[in-house]
Design goal:
Shape: flat
Number of domains: 1
Order of helices and strands: HHHHHHHHH
Radius of gyration: 18 Å
Structural class: mainly alpha
Number of helices: 9
Length: 211
C-alpha cells in the first residue's frame, strides 16, 4: 500500500513540476549558460518548494497556508523584482561562451533563488490540496502515509528537473553560438515579461483590485 502511495506522490510531483513557467525558464537558461550543476541546483530548489506546498496541503496546515496567502502579493512583488532583474541581466549579456566552474556559494544561491521564486506563487498550495484529494488521501490517512506521499512528491519533482537538465545539456552540445545567443535573448525576454506580469498582478492585489 505504501508503494502505491509513493508512486502516487511521484506522479503528483511530476505533474506539478511539468509546466515550464518562469521558474522552468530560469532553470533552462541556467543549465544552458551556467552549467548543468547550476541548472540542477535550481531545479532542486523548485522541487523543495513544491514539497513544502505538499507538506502544507498533505498535513492540513491551514494556519500556515492562510499566512502565506495573506502575504501572497508581497511575495509576488519580491518574485517579480527578481525575475525582472534576471531577465535584464540576460538581455544585456554579451558573452555566451561556455560556463566557468561554479563555486559552492553560487550553487547555494541558485538553489535558494528558485525556491524563493516558486514560493512566491502560493496559489499552488490550493492546487496541491485539490490534487492530493484526487489521489485519494483523506482525513483518516496516517502520518506515515502522508510522509511517504510527500517524499514521492519531492522525488517526482526532482526526477523531472534532472531529466530536463540532462536534455538541455544534450541540446547545448548541438547548438551553435548563434543559436545560444537567440536562446539567451528569448529566455531573458520571457523572464522579464513574467516578472512584469507578476509585479502588475501583485500591485493590483495590494491596491485592492480583484482580478
Amino acid at each position: 500500500m505504501l508503494i502505491l502511495t509513493l508512486i502516487k506522490g511521484i506522479v503528483v510531483g511530476i505533474v506539478i513540476a511539468l509546466p515550464l513557467g518562469p521558474v522552468g525558464v530560469l532553470c533552462v537558461r541556467r543549465t544552458m549558460f551556467e552549467g548543468a550543476l547550476f541548472g540542477l541546483a535550481s531545479g532542486l530548489g523548485a522541487a523543495l518548494a513544491d514539497t513544502v506546498f505538499g507538506i502544507i496541503a498533505g498535513f492540513g496546515l491551514t494556519a500556515v497556508r492562510d499566512v502565506i496567502l495573506d502575504f501572497q502579493n508581497w511575495l509576488g512583488v519580491g518574485g517579480g523584482v527578481f525575475l525582472v532583474a534576471a531577465g535584464a541581466r540576460a538581455l544585456t549579456l554579451r558573452n555566451v561562451a561556455p560556463p566557468e566552474p561554479l563555486a559552492g556559494e553560487r550553487l547555494v544561491g541558485a538553489f535558494a533563488s528558485t525556491f524563493a521564486v516558486t514560493v512566491t506563487n502560493p496559489i499552488a498550495i490550493l492546487g496541491f490540496t485539490a490534487i492530493i484529494a484526487k489521489v485519494g488521501l483523506n482525513h483518516d490517512a496516517t502520518f506515515g502515509t502522508i510522509a511517504v506521499l510527500i517524499a514521492g512528491v519531492f522525488a517526482g519533482s526532482a526526477l523531472w528537473w534532472l531529466g530536463l537538465t540532462a536534455g538541455i545539456v544534450s541540446l547545448k552540445r548541438r547548438a551553435k553560438e548563434f543559436h545560444l545567443a537567440t536562446m539567451n535573448a528569448i529566455s531573458g525576454a520571457i523572464l522579464g515579461l513574467s516578472g512584469i506580469g507578476l509585479l502588475v498582478t501583485a500591485g493590483l492585489g495590494l491596491a485592492g483590485v480583484r482580478l
